[in-house]
Amino acid sequence: MDKITRIGVDLAKNLIQLHGVDSTERVVLRKAISRQKFLEWFANLEPCLVAMEVCSAAHYWARKLRALGHEVRLIAPQFAAPYRKGGQHVKNDMLDAEAICEAAGRPHMRFVPVKTADQQNVLLVHTMRTGFVEERTALVNRLRSELVEFGVFLPQGIDAFRARFVEALEDGATELSGAARTALLRGWDHIRALDHQITWCDVQIAAHVKHDSNAQRVMAVIGIGPLTASAAVSSVGDAHLFKNGRQFAAWLGTVPKQASSGGKTRLGRITRQGNTYLRTLLFQGSRSAVTSAHRRTDRLSRWIVQLQARVGWYRTLVAVANKHARILWAILARGERFDPSYVPTRPRAAGRDTATA
Asked: Model-level pTM greater than 0.85?
């Protein structure tokens, strides 16, 4: 077999497809290998470039392959899909591995940074917390809808639900039977158990922020708390991989879509691509910053108040979330501290007379 210089890997639960090329881009490998023998096969191979799509276990396999001396690159699925033969109408593991290998060889392809085990450990707590919150919300809505069937109407909002639920069950004027009341109380006990789980996750996240200097500097931004700070540090990792704050904001999906052609610029809604969880937290933080902006006198808050008066509430939220994303990049990439009264200095134009400037 000729020397393999690049391998595209289509990951799966049990059977993993490989597609390799040599230095002349000639196909020298098409092979399916079991998950149990995956690392053993790469351990006997000379170091080369290994490309994989970002999916479940991709970061784990990337760390293991790097330990074996291979160069690993992770590609977003939407960047590899255009290189698949047959397009959207034809899809199998062999074509996927070939498309990944082809995409990894493009000189200007963008890759996803490999997360460390520490990053994934922190993000796991965030993921569990999000699942608990979603489960609690679904259960509250379910209990409220069951009570409506018996003419008991509780106001929306989890705080109002907690304050009125037990009182509604104790009302003897309702048509609820003893078994029905017991069933609803079991749901109430499950909600309180979920509250304890969410509180435990919050404690772990707060402990991470307390021992991470980057997260502490991120928390100084108006509207950003421990949850967003921890998620930002764990999701981004190395902010130097982004050229500037604009590129980081595009990665988060807070920049407008473009449908430009013929020299005309057409901008639409934000792309909503990239890290959905971190973008959601930034928008929640922007709500807090916009709501409290009128009570502050710093430069950033004055800008928020003026912008809201000009474009309205919702567009201001998007603009503040985008600005927060750029501020996060400056904090993580340059080690700077947040200053709400910061005034940017623009470089003097080339050839401009210094004496008359």
From this structure: yes
